[in-house]
Amino acid sequence: MTKEQVMKQLNRRDFLKAAGAVAGAAWSVISPLSAQSVANRSESITIPDFTRGAWRSATPLGIVGS
Predict the structure, then answer these.
(1) Would you give the DSSP letter of residue 62?
(2) Out of 30, 44, 46, 50, which could bridge 25 as a Cys pair, Cβ 3.0 to 4.6 Å?
(3) What is the pLDDT of residue 39?
(4) pTM exceeds 0.90
(5) Are 37 and 43 in contact (CB under 8 A)?
(6) How far apart are CA 14 and CA 23, in angstroms?
(7) Distance between CA atoms of residues 57 and 49, nearest Å
(8) Residues with Cβ < 8 Å from 48, sequence gap 6 or more?
(9) Please, are residues 33 and 47 in contact by the beta-carbon 8 Å criterion?
């Protein structure tokens, strides 16, 4: 394996770890936010942005076609 291939693999693993952490955090707030919404007569509730806006500049993975 070349150095570039190793770096690409490490970057992919880091990305997947970070993505998993963000997804886990997002899913963990669904129940409490749903309860809050129901308690407030189905009021819309904003889900926190656990990426701090990084999703806006993320490079597409290329797994979804246009």
Answers:
(1) S
(2) 50
(3) 95
(4) no
(5) yes
(6) 14
(7) 14
(8) 26, 29
(9) yes
